[in-house]
Predict the 3D structure of the following.
Amino acid sequence: MVLDKPPGLLTSPEAAFPNEPALMALLHAAIADGKPWAQTRQISHLSCPLRLDTDTSGLLILAKDKTVHSALADAFGTETPIRRHLAIVRGIPSEKVFEINAPLASHPFQPGLSKVDLREGKKSKTRVEVIETFPRHEYSFLQCDLLTQRPCQIPVHLQHIGLTVVGDRNHGGKPLWLSRLKKDYRLKPGREERPLLQRSAVHASEIRLKHPVSHEDMQWTCPLPKDFKTALKYLRLYDQPSGQDSSSPDPSSHFPPVPFD
C-alpha cells in the first residue's frame, strides 16, 4: 500500500518523542478498530520497510505481510529502486548533476538525527539534479534520488556541500519569507507575517521498483503539496528562474500514476 504522508508526522513511534503522534501507530489502531478502509481492503497487517523523515511529505510504501516487508527491505538495500525527492534549498550548486557520497552515522547529541562521519558512518549516496535556480536570492529547486536509505540523508548531505534545506532548523535551514523576496512588501497594521514555507522543504515525489510479488515494473508519483507550490510560485514571481521556464509544471506530474492497490 502506498500513502501520501503529510509533513510533521512521525512515520513510526520513536523513544525520543514519546508524546508525538506516529502514522504507523494510527494505522495499526485503525486496523484493530476495524475501520472501513482496512476491512474493505482486507488489511490485517501493515509494516514499514523504510521511513520518511518527520517533516518530509509524500510517498511512503507499506507492506501488507511479512514476506513482502522482507522483499521490499532487501530491494531498498540496493541502489536499483528509485526514491525521488524534491527539495528547495538556500544556495546554488556549482554543477547541474552530481552525486554526494558521505557516510552517515547517528548524531550523538540529537536523537533521531544523523551526521557525516567519515570513520564510523555507513555508506550513503544521493544523486542530485538541479531543476531551477533563483540567483537573485540564491535559492535552488533540486531533484534528489536516494541511492541509500539513511535518516535525514538529504538535508545532511546537502548541508555537507554548503546547501541548506529551507525550513529545516535541525540542519541550519530558515523559513522562506515573502518579505525577503518582494522588494515593496508591506504588511497591514496588526498583521503578523507567516512564512511561505516553514517546515523542511523536502517532498517524496516518486517511487519506482519491481513489485515484490508480481515482479512488474511499478511507479507511483505524488504531486507537490500546497505549501511547496506556494513557495515555488513566489520564487518564480520575484526571482527569475534560471534553467527552466517560470511557467513549468510540477516535475512530479511528468509521469502518470500507476494503480497500487
User: Anything to note?
Assistant: The radius of gyration is 19 Å. The longest strand covers residues 125-134. The CA atoms of residues 104 and 216 lie 32 Å apart.
